[in-house]
Design brief:
single chain, mainly alpha, Growth Hormone, Chain: A, 15 helices, globular, transmembrane helix, membrane
């Protein structure tokens, strides 16, 4: 009885989003599906390196996968608000399941070629263009504003626990049974999240359709709204820099494992799990702190810390220090991502939220093609250690620049207020 009471207090105090029935269905489905996603991520990276032996071609896969996000995110944000988000997610998750099972079939029949991986990565990227901003803006419909940050932190906890378990399980699967099992288990894992979505009963927010307002006008309105808001614009610029330069682990870590540490897939899985362990710790910390709301200072500090530790990873040659620095990097990534995501969703007006989150997806995930190509090119020419140092150094310089510029930028003056009341950050 005392254990049950203690459990209820823990949930009420630190994981309050789980008190919402709809969110529990969504969260438990994600717990299973995301493990499969991370198994596929490391399986795909190792498969491409095995097929081609080229870090640049591995980076190209990442670029292709996120190219649709880059090109179509602005349009996706306008479309998403016009349909129930639950229905969109059922479609996108079903398509992702079919793509994973197709990849598994090609690997098991030994007919997989690099071109197949490119095409399937492109189709997955197209699916994710609509899936990512929909998931982001769906949270508020199933938990409300009061528990939004807690839900985002719990999502990050799940994502990063999967980042620990997925690569570990995937590495064992690849070593014992072959890469195809990573794709097969990922495909089957989508059943859990699709079932959870069918059980959710939420009142959807569908924006009223405006007559004679074209899609380009709606995109322009969203961009102008963000540009006129200091907090939104600074946060999104930092997300753009970090998303482009700091999140190239999928390209650099496998190459670093092979070429710098001279290790095999088991070490690769362990290093990815170290990154996940640090991220999990950061997400769990944010779950406990979520009642205090997002913190702008944490966004600024974590963007700089993340950049510094990327440089340190590039300087190390020992697996132990590589794993340690990746774990600390993981903590920084979650402090940055959780606070940025929460800030954008809670600060944006309801009618602009999906458009703001579609631009968030654009600058965070849509910038990945540029980052992956840069990281792949750097790894090809200067080694994976050079890639880490280049990405970390550029990220540090640009984040510092953005922070300094916005310190001098005045806050917008509300209508009717004298200019003398304007404050600087």
């Amino acid at each position: 009885m005392n254990v049950r009471l203690a459990g209820r207090r823990l949930v009420d105090n630190h994981f309050h989003a789980l008190t919402h029935r709809n969110y529990r269905y969504f969260w438990f489905g994600q717990c299973i599906s995301l493990i499969g996603t991370w198994m596929q991520n490391i399986g795909q990276a190792w498969l491409v390196l095995t097929l081609t032996g080229s870090p640049f071609l591995l980076g190209l896969i990442g670029a292709v996968q996120f190219l649709p996000v880059t090109c179509l995110s602005l349009f996706a944000g306008v479309v998403i608000d016009k349909f129930p988000k639950k229905n969109i997610l059922i479609v996108t998750q079903s398509v992702s399941m079919c793509l994973a099972l197709t990849m598994a079939a090609l690997v098991f029949t030994d007919t997989i070629r690099y071109g197949h991986v490119v095409v399937l990565a492109l189709l997955l990227g197209l699916t994710n263009t609509f899936d990512m901003p929909t998931r982001q803006s769906f949270n508020i419909e199933i938990v409300g504003k009061d528990d939004l940050m807690n839900a985002i932190a719990l999502n990050s906890t799940t994502f990063n626990l999967a980042r620990i378990l997925g690569p570990s399980i995937g590495a064992v699967m690849m070593a014992l049974l072959g890469t195809g099992w990573c794709f097969l288990l990922n495909g089957l894992s989508f059943i859990a999240v699709i079932y959870g979505l069918t059980r959710i009963k939420a009142i959807p927010y569908v924006r009223e359709k405006k007559k004679d307002v074209g899609i380009f006008k709606e995109i322009k309105d969203g961009i102008m709204y963000i540009a006129g808001d200091k907090l939104l614009s600074q946060t999104l610029l930092l997300v753009a820099v970090v998303g482009t330069l700091a999140y190239n682990f999928g390209v650099l870590i496998p190459v670093f494992t092979k070429d710098v540490l001279h290790m095999e897939e088991q070490t690769y899985g362990i290093l990815m799990s170290c990154l996940g362990a640090g991220s999990f710790a950061g997400a769990l910390t944010m779950s406990f702190l979520s009642k205090k709301g997002p913190r702008r200072k944490l966004i600024l500090i974590s963007s700089l810390a993340l950049s510094v530790f990327l440089i340190l990873i590039g300087l190390t040659r020992l697996p132990l220090f590589t794993g340690l620095f990746l774990a600390i990097t993981g903590v920084s990534t979650i402090l940055f991502a959780t606070n940025s995501n929460s800030t954008l969703q809670m600060h944006a007006k309801d009618e602009y939220r999906a458009r703001v989150m579609s631009i968030y997806s654009l600058v965070f995930a849509g910038s990945t093609p540029v980052g992956n190509l840069l990281a792949g090119y750097a790894a090809d020419h200067w080694g994976a250690n050079g890639g880490f140092m280049l990405c970390g150094g550029l990220s540090l310089i640009l984040c510092l620049g953005i922070i300094l510029v916005f310190r001098k930028r005045p806050e917008p003056v509300p209508a009717g207020e004298p200019a003398s009341k304007t404050k600087t950050a």
